[in-house]
Amino acid sequence: MSLRYLSARLAQQIDEELMNVAGAFSIDQLMELAGLACAQTVASVYDVKKYNRVLVCCGPGNQGGDGLVAARHLSMFGYRPTLYMPKPGSKEIYQRLHTQCNNLSIPTLPISPPSVTEVKSSYDVILDAIFGFSFHPPVRSPFDTVLPILSASGLPIVSVDIPSGWDVEKGPIELTKKSEEGTEQKLDSSFKWLEPDVLISLTAPKEGVRTFAGRHFLGGRFIPWKMQEKFELNLPSYPGSEQIVELPQASSGQKL
Predict the structure, then answer these.
(1) Which residue, 56, 65, 182, 244, has fewest beta-carbon neighbours within 10 Å?
(2) How far is CA 25 from CA 19, 20, 244, in A?
């Protein structure tokens, strides 16, 4: 049987069951496992000597928490991560994860968006942990400025779970923002959506990434067997003790 791709509703249901009384996982555990998978994906594709400087872009929610965990592991792996949090999360767990990064002397950029030139000259690869599967357009400030900058840098991008701004079920959609008058308008004349080179899906891939044509990894080696059977996930086998597994490349799909 083929690997199951998840709708937004089903992805949310699985997350809830993992953290209910029966699943017994805490949000801390899930973020730790997800962030480790993200860091391993970066390390698997981008050699630490050639792509040492990683810009880890974190949104304010759980996706950003995964990015903070990944930054910590990347530091332990010998990379030089830098955090960029355009809108830092307010939850206690987010603050703790940021403190853990501070304790490893991982630098954090100012909130104001860096220039395209700064990003391009200062980093080798970008980890996109901004928006998750619960994202709904339009894109709000400051992310309406951030996403075009990341895209224009031309650096390789690794996206966490789903590329930021993509519809979880429809895939890449042309992004809009709200003007001061309240009307929707395009983000940038030269920018439609984020086009990552690598994707690390978590738990199971989402419907919107079926046509993703870059390198696609899966992380989520913690789903109980009974839950896998209940939702008919048909997850692939993970090699050895690895926390990630590479999925077959789409035969046709998003240009990368």
Answers:
(1) 182
(2) 5, 7, 19
Neighbours of 229 (CB within 10 A): 10
Amino acid occupying residue 4: R
pLDDT digit string, tens, across residues 38-88 = 999 999 999 999 999 999 999 999 999 999 999 999 999 999 999 999 999
What pLDDT sits at residue 156? 98
Location of structure tokens 């991982």: 106
How far is 5 from 159, CA to CA, in rounded Å?
A: 17
Distance CA 161, CA 84 (A): 18
pLDDT at 46: 98
C-alpha torsion 145→150→151→156, nearest 10: -170
Q: What are the CA-CA distances from residue 141 to residues 14, 94, 138 (Å)?
A: 30, 20, 10
